[in-house]
Write a structure and sequence with these properties.
Elements (H helix, E strand, L loop, with lengths): L2 H4 L6 H6 L4 H5 L17 H11 L3 H4 L2 E7 L5 E7 L5 H17 L1 H13 L10 E12 L9 H15 L8 E13 L4 E5 L6 H8 L8 E8 L2 E2 L5 H4 E4 L11 H12 L4 H15 L5 H10 L8 H9 L20 H13 L5 E5 L7 H18 L2 E5 L5 H4 L4 E6 L2 E7 L3 H7 L10 H7 L22 H10 L1 H11 L21 H18 L1 H21 L10 H20 L3 H18 L5 H31 L5 H29 L2 H17 L15 H6 L1 H14 L18 H8 L8 H26 L7 H6 L8 E4 L6 E4 L11 H4 L23 H5 L11 E11 L2 H4 L7 E12 L4 E6 L5 H9 L6 E8 L2 E2 L2 H7 E4 L11 H12 L6 H14 L20 H13 L5 E5 L7 H16 L3 E5 L5 H4 L4 E6 L3 E7 L5 H8 L13 H7 L3 H7 L3 H6 L2 H13 L19 H17 L5 H18 L10 H42 L5 H31 L5 H27 L4 H17 L15 H5 L2 H14 ...
Parallel strand pairs: 5-10, 5-11, 8-9, 9-10, 17-22, 17-23, 20-21, 21-22
Antiparallel strand pairs: 1-2, 3-4, 3-6, 6-7, 11-12, 13-14, 15-16, 15-18, 18-19, 23-24, 25-26
Helix pairs in contact: 6-7, 6-14, 7-16, 11-14, 11-15, 22-26, 23-24, 23-26, 23-54, 24-26, 24-27, 24-30, 25-27, 26-27, 26-32, 27-28, 27-30, 27-32, 28-50, 28-51, 30-32, 39-40, 39-41, 39-49, 49-52, 50-51, 50-52, 51-53, 51-54, 51-56, 52-53, 52-58, 53-54, 53-56, 53-58, 56-58
């Protein structure tokens, strides 16, 4: 359950027992007195008898029994004995209703009941005091442009890394300090608020206290829990760190997510404490409250799939309304962002940790919800003696007042730590005073900032001079609170006072078996939820088996002959290949699950093997099913050996191959950890396995020094086993008639001619080896999961930078005065300018004229020098009687809801006007974002009713996109471009064509100045939660991207979410300035401070169910809003200084509605304000005289050529700075070329027999297929990431799909041309092909166009499918078909007539034909054919493969056609298909 409830337990009773302590000694508070307990009356004999019966039970049984009071329909009250460990549905529902009713009415009273029960028998709860002394945290980073991950810099990193390993030179990285000599004490039973501006080191401090600091950072100092060092216990179990990042499995519901977390984290020592509690109660004759007793016993049961503690946490976090809704992800609709944040918090609250470190838990939450959650946290801390530190960005005044202590960080130093009541006294002592109607938390975060500090100087008789952070730190050490803290730190904590249950020494909360059961249960659930993938794979292999049986149909085969044997070999090879490729989908599945796995692994939810074993075991039936489907369809239809024993041995081989393949791909996924690298590495590994598998090149033709590779290839064992099973059958026992082959039977002769083994025991060697490889790969999978970190470390970079790899941006601006650095997950940066370096210089005093004025509405230097000056047309937006429906979710239908549609917006009306800043507010899930999406035309599904008008004319989405901007809640940007480039790109494509380049740049600079983005202008954006910009920087970029478009109407979805008070003020000042120019701006907002809230002109307040509770003016100091709600009978009056936004949300909750028996939406609908709004809507819905509807001569602001040019420019930089894709691709191209060259060394010139020809054919075949397939797969994650950005940019009307498509194809073509130059030179020279100009030209041409159509096909597959996983599976299906009909596995002349058409519409045969014919189509030498007369080379190519040298020009043209065809498919997909569900 919540840490509050679990803190009265511990995991360390074993230690106390080893010291000879009894339960009573462990939990005794040391006093002899026990509360006097009044005996319960004996009136209820039935209840007393049941309690007496329970008390007589053994401890184990007594802990599982309870009494539950229930009233029957006739009014009779009965007391039922219940089995806590196996509650019936009705009993569980009754108990939940009773407990949750208590929690809903008064959670504090409920917690006090729990605490009183514990206190009255003299049990002491464990407490934890956390101390940190002289804590330093440092890191090393590259400086300036050298830090950008370009291809050139990656090469330098490799060289530097190698030189560094050899100790030839020292590192040229710059050392930065994240935390500088911070010390303090976090005390139990006191809730602590951690404040600080961005980059102050808050996250790093919390990670350090929780024992989760990144290993790549250097730290010094001392952190102790109750005087114990971190290495004396398990800090990750004793404490819990709640991250900023919301990482969850999208296919699980909210309740399932928390249930799994609670199950894995365990109950700590709840059970042992409760056993001691009940023993003492029995001794004292105390009869506990039945509901409290049942609840405490229920949450002490470990290993439960669903626990009452989950229901409790769901209730206190307000998640009970979405408990059965899928969490969702970036592509699938789920719960809201605020609800996801609460799920992240709830995941750790259900565990037994007794020290909680919460990092920005309020992001995406409205101020009322934040207040309620912090209020509950305060109750838990005070009543249950929890140790808790919470980091918040913009706590409202009433939320701030809930905290006991404050830690204020700035620039990595502690400015203040101590009681909340004394913090203002300290700053007044320094000469700074918090103005009236200014939130104290906002003041604290701004007062240390050089740009904001002056406005708070209140000593009128003294000139202001900047007080640096170091000055504050020095002053605090001499302040009374600082002196007191220093005295406390000097006195060591007495370890003997540590409660034996306080510190946890067990890594996991359950036994190994229970953890394995939990992971098995979850994996089964996820497989059910992801059944579409498995069904798709089953359909795919079924279709492929049908194709195989029709291609290799037995009526076309001739067993007992050499020709027939070659065809059977082709069929068996295709079966092996198909079963191996079928396992590739496992790779995408594993990589998709890794982020959540790493989070849960590091929090000690479970050991890595417990995660891996269910995946391994549960895929075994799928392997058996896939193998069975293949063999059932193909075995007898193709005409393999008819004996039943051969059939089942064939099945065993295919099963073993499939198990080996899925194990290999999941191992590669765990080692690579990113989809791009995994794709490249898997194809490198698969290529080696494939080439040395015994079919492409025979064992006899492999160089002796490479034979080890042959025996290391798992495919070799599968290929040998399956062909031995077939060709040692009796029907292949005819005598061999070819004297050139030394074999007794024709079956053995066929095997020997292709280099396979002929001994029967090799079948069992093959099967055994395959199963051994499967075991080995799964073992490596577990090892990789156990020891590799979540940070991406590519194999190539790992060689040179063994333990360190950051995506770091460290920028030097042109003037050399500002340096910015972001390091890892700490999101910590340091800004140093020349003024701050001049410690002894004081800025000139300036007359203060802004104190006490709203920072947002007041004047500032920035406002006077900035303003948006480009011309625009002011426009209003009205919407009337808007309703929005979606199809009823299957989860809700399964609960018996009969309706087909779920209504999310209900009869919503309003008007947004130029020059009026409107706030759209409501609790999480009220429909704010939904309404904005509907109005902005961003919904991709659902049903909309009602009317929307723009300045009186019906809204047309085509033109509306040109004049509007939409700042989405999720900050989606291309990761590999800089901040400045992102803005320049947006302005380039969205500003009118008559705005020249210089004006664009000036406008972009102006917006950057406005949002204070210039210091980070040259920083890469990066991926959220991984690298690049911090959350607040990313949010400001999102706003800037829309502002540079100069829109008339701007929608902003939570523009201040994730920002600290100062950043929020900067953003809102910018928004206010934008509105003052005459634009129409609407913002959803969750946690506005008083001054931010009162910077809005009007408010639309929504309630759950998508209804409006109020729409109208806010008024000066929120007077009109307050008058409206206070005019409703029963509504509590607002108190002095209270935040009106929070008060408004609190007095309009569903709970208040039920208490007052009112409906605020209905009250509003009947109000005078509603009538005024309807009149305004009617007025604005009528076009003004002489006005015209919006019209643009073209659909886009720029021409198609300019669109292409801009997209190419952005993609050029994106690709150049993406080394994990391009650098890795080039490295592996060289590696693959060298491998192929080594295996097929000079095979191109030594062709005397058919097998020699087949060897070189096999070499050129795999040379084309594998690298082409690698290109197709490697490009897919890149396109997938950019597609998410594409959806936003396309919805904003920035460009058409086709210019974008052509630009991405053009940049891919550029890199592909370079790739094929490298590949062709290496391969052509090493294989020994003839150095003639025409032959090399044809070879290079076909390789280049082949790689291009493979790449284009991979891009098209992503564009036509909803996600990468489906694209990978569908692509593998078509790739397998391409390989089958490539002309190598089965030559064109042997393909049945009914399949010849597919041969001609398949791209690979054309490439294979072109390469082989261009190199050998003009040769006329003789070759030896086993079992047949010798033939001329030219005649053999024509008769066996159907290749004609005269056909080369046609083949060349067809390659261009394939490229154009796939380009059009890619363009069609991104233009007409949108898989983003909104």
């Amino acid at each position: 359950m919540a840490s509050s409830l679990s803190s009265f337990v511990g995991n360390d009773l074993e230690r106390s027992r080893s010291r000879g302590l009894s339960f009573e000694e462990v939990w005794n508070n040391g006093g002899s007195d026990v509360f006097n307990v009044s005996r319960h009356s004996q009136n209820d004999d039935e209840e007393n008898l049941k309690w007496a019966a329970i008390e007589r039970l053994p401890t184990y049984d007594r802990m599982r029994k309870g009494v539950l009071k229930q009233m029957h329909d006739d009014g009779k009250i009965v007391h039922n004995e219940i089995d806590i460990g196996n509650l019936r549905f009705q009993d569980k529902k009754l108990l939940m209703d009773k407990i949750l009713h208590l929690v809903e009415q008064d959670n504090e009273k409920f917690l006090n009941k729990l605490r009183n029960r514990i206190d009255r028998v003299g049990i002491t709860l464990p407490k934890i005091e956390v101390r940190y002394e002289d804590l330093f945290v440092e890191g090393d980073v590259h400086v300036g442009g050298r830090a950008l991950p370009t291809l050139f810099n990656v090469l330098l990193n490799i060289v530097e890394g190698i030189v560094g390993v050899l100790h030839l030179t020292s590192s040229n990285k710059t050392e930065i300090q994240i935390l500088k000599n911070v010390s303090g004490i976090v005390k139990p039973s006191r809730i602590t608020l951690l404040l600080g501006p961005p980059a102050s080191g808050k996250t790093t401090l919390l990670l350090a206290l929780a024992g989760k600091l990144d290993n790549n950072l250097r730290s010094s100092g001392r952190i102790t829990y109750c005087g114990h060092e971190l290495n004396e216990f398990v800090p990750q179990k004793t404490s819990a760190y709640i991250s900023q990042q919301d990482l969850h499995i999208g296919e699980m519901t909210v309740k399932e997510t928390l249930d799994f977390s609670g199950r894995c984290l365990g109950v700590g020592s709840r059970y042992d404490m409760l056993a001691e509690l009940t023993r003492r109660e029995r001794q004292e004759g105390i009869k506990p409250d039945p509901e409290i007793d049942a609840f405490m016993k229920a949450i002490a049961m470990s290993g439960q799939e669903s626990s009452l503690s989950t229901d409790y946490i769901l209730k206190i976090l307000g998640l009970d309304i979405c408990a059965d809704i899928m969490v969702g992800d970036s592509m699938n609709r789920g719960i809201s962002g605020g609800q996801k944040k609460r799920v992240t918090t709830g995941e750790m609250l259900v565990g037994p940790a007794k020290a909680l470190f919460m990092d920005e838990i309020s992001t995406g939450l409205d101020s009322s919800t934040t207040y309620q959650i912090c209020k509950v946290m305060r109750q838990m801390v005070h009543i249950m003696d929890i140790t808790m530190v919470i980091s918040l960005l913009q706590p409202a005044p009433e939320t701030y007042e809930l905290f006991d202590d404050i830690i204020l960080l700035s620039e990595g130093q502690t400015v203040y730590q101590g009681p909340r009541e004394n913090v203002l006294e300290f700053f007044e002592h320094m000469g700074f005073k918090c103005p009236a109607r200014k939130g104290v938390a906002d003041f604290l975060q701004e007062v240390t900032s050089k740009k904001d500090q002056q406005q708070y100087w209140f000593r009128e008789n003294e000139p202001y001079s900047y007080v640096s952070v170091s000055d504050f730190v020095h002053a605090f050490s001499s302040f009374k609170i600082g002196e007191q803290l220093e005295k406390e730190l000097k006195v060591p904590y007495d370890k003997e006072q540590t409660h034996p249950a306080a510190l946890v020494k067990d890594k996991y909360g359950l036994s190994n078996w229970e953890l394995l059961q939990a992971c098995f249960t979850r994996e089964v659930l996820l497989m059910k939820r992801g059944s579409f993938v498995y069904i798709f794979k089953t359909i795919q292999i079924t279709l492929m088996s049908i194709v195989a049986l029709t291609v290799f149909l037995r009526t076309q085969n001739h067993p007992g002959t050499f020709d027939g044997g070659l065809k059977y070999l082709g069929g068996l090879f295709f079966a092996v290949t198909n079963l191996m490729f079928n396992g590739m989908a496992e790779q995408a599945t594993i990589i998709q699950s890794l982020p959540v796995f790493y989070k849960q692994r590091d929090l000690y939810f479970f050991p890595s093997w417990a995660f891996a074993l269910p995946i391994w075991v549960l895929r075994i039936p799928l392997s058996l099913m896939d193998a069975a489907i293949w063999i059932i369809f193909t075995y007898y239809a193709i005409g393999y050996a008819p004996a039943a024993s051969r059939f089942f041995k064939h099945l065993l081989v295919l099963f073993s191959i499939h198990q080996m393949a899925v194990s290999l791909f999941r191992c590669i996924a765990a080692l690579s950890r990113t989809q791009v690298i995994a794709n490249v590495v898997s194809f490198l590994g698969f290529q080696i396995i494939f080439v040395l598998g015994g079919f492409i090149i025979s064992r006899d033709a492999i160089k002796k020094w490479l034979l080890w590779g042959y025996y290391m290839s798992p495919m070799m064992y599968g290929q040998n086993a399956i062909v031995i099973n077939e060709f040692l059958d009796e029907r292949w026992s005819q005598p061999n008639t070819d004297p050139r082959i030394h074999a007794t039977t024709i079956g053995k002769a066929i095997l020997k001619s292709r280099g396979f083994y002929t001994q029967g025991y090799w079948y069992w060697i093959g099967v055994g080896a395959l199963l051994a490889f499967a075991f080995l790969f799964n073992l490596l999978f577990i090892v990789a999961l156990s020891y590799l970190s979540r940070k991406y470390i590519s194999f190539i970079l790992n060689i040179c930078d063994w333990t360190k790899f950051f995506y770091i941006q460290f920028v030097n601006l042109l003037n050399g005065q500002i340096k910015i650095s972001a390091l890892g997950d700490s999101k910590t940066s340091f800004i140093m300018d020349e003024d701050e370096k001049k410690k002894n210089e004081k800025p000139s005093a300036r007359k203060k004229d802004t104190r006490g004025k709203s920072k947002i509405n007041g004047s500032s230097d920035q406002e006077s020098r900035t303003g948006i000056t480009l011309p625009f047309q002011p426009l209003s937006l009205t919407f009337n009687h808007i309703s929005y429906y979606v199809d009823m979710p299957a989860e809700m239908k399964s609960q018996g809801i009969p309706e087909d549609r779920l209504q999310l917006l209900q009869d919503v009306s309003g008007a947004f006007r130029p020059g009026i800043l409107t706030a759209l507010m409501g609790v999480s899930g009220a429909g704010k974002t939904t309404l904005m999406d509907v109005l902005a035309g961003r919904k991709t599904g659902g049903y909309i009713e009602g009317s929307i008008s723009i300045s009186g004319y019906p809204k047309k989405q085509e033109t509306f996109a040109r004049i509007s901007g939409y700042c989405e809640q999720t900050d989606i940007h291309s990761p590999n471009v800089t901040v400045y480039e992102s803005l320049l790109f947006s302005a380039w494509l969205r500003l009118p064509a008559d705005v020249n380049k210089e004006q664009r740049k000036m406008f972009v600079d102006e917006v950057m100045e406005l949002l204070e983005l210039k210091p980070i202008g040259e920083t890469l954006v990066g991926l959220p939660g991984t690298d690049g910009l911090s959350t607040e920087q990313r949010k400001r970029l999102t706003i800037a991207v829309e502002l540079v478009a100069n829109p008339s109407i701007i929608f902003m979805d939570e523009p201040t979410s994730g920002l600290d008070a100062r950043a929020a003020a900067i953003v809102m000042r910018t928004v206010r300035n934008t509105v003052n120019t005459g634009r129409t701006v609407v913002c959803t907002i969750h946690q506005p401070s008083i001054d931010i809230f009162e910077s809005f002109d009007e408010l639309v307040l929504m309630k759950r169910g998508g209804q409006i509770s109020y729409a109208g003016p806010i008024g000066h100091h929120s007077q009109k809003l307050i008058e409206y709600f206070e005019g409703i009978a029963g509504v509590e009056k607002i108190t002095e200084g209270y935040n009106p936004a929070t008060w408004m949300l609190e007095v309009s909750t569903p709970l208040i509605e039920s208490q007052l028996d009112v409906d605020f939406a209905q009250i509003y609908a009947n109000s005078v304000q509603y009538q005024r709004n309807q009149e305004l809507i009617k007025e604005l819905s009528t076009p003004a005289p002489d006005s015209k509807d919006l019209f643009f001569a073209s659909a886009y602001a720029q021409s198609s050529f300019v669109q292409w040019k801009a997209c190419f420019w952005k993609l050029y930089w994106s690709y150049w700075r993406n080394p994990q894709y391009n650098f890795t691709r080039y490295c592996l191209t060289v590696i693959m070329g060298l491998i192929f060259g080594a295996v097929f060394w000079n095979k191109g010139t030594k062709i005397h027999e058919q097998q020699d020809l087949l060897n070189i054919f096999g070499g050129l075949y795999v040379a084309v297929v594998f690298l082409g397939y690698m290109n197709a797969s490697a490009v897919q994650p890149i396109v997938d990431i950019e597609r998410t950005v594409l959806y936003r940019e396309k919805a904003a009307g920035m460009y058409s799909a086709f210019p974008y498509a052509i630009s991405q194809v053009a940049i891919e073509a550029l890199y592909t041309v370079i790739q094929t130059v490298l590949y062709s030179l290496i391969l052509y020279s090493m294989v020994g092909l003839q150095w003639k100009a025409d032959k090399f030209f044809w070879f290079y041409y076909y390789i280049t166009t082949c790689f291009m159509y493979y790449t284009l096909y991979g891009m098209m597959a992503i564009a036509l499918t909803p996600g990468y996983q489906i694209a990978a599976i569908s692509m593998s299906f078509f790739m397998t078909l391409w390989n089958l009909f490539a002309g190598f596995t089965i030559p064109m002349t042997q393909i049945p007539i009914w399949w010849r058409w597919f041969y001609w519409i398949c791209p690979v045969p054309w490439t294979f034909n072109g390469i082989i014919t261009s190199q050998y189509g003009d040769l006329d030498s003789e070759i030896i054919i086993p079992g047949a007369p010798n033939m001329r080379f030219k005649a053999f190519l024509k008769e066996r493969f159907g290749f004609h040298h005269d056909f080369l020009p046609v083949i060349a043209v067809v390659h261009i056609v394939w490229c154009i065809l796939f380009l059009c498919g890619f363009g069609f997909g991104i233009k007409f298909l949108n898989f983003q569900k909104r």
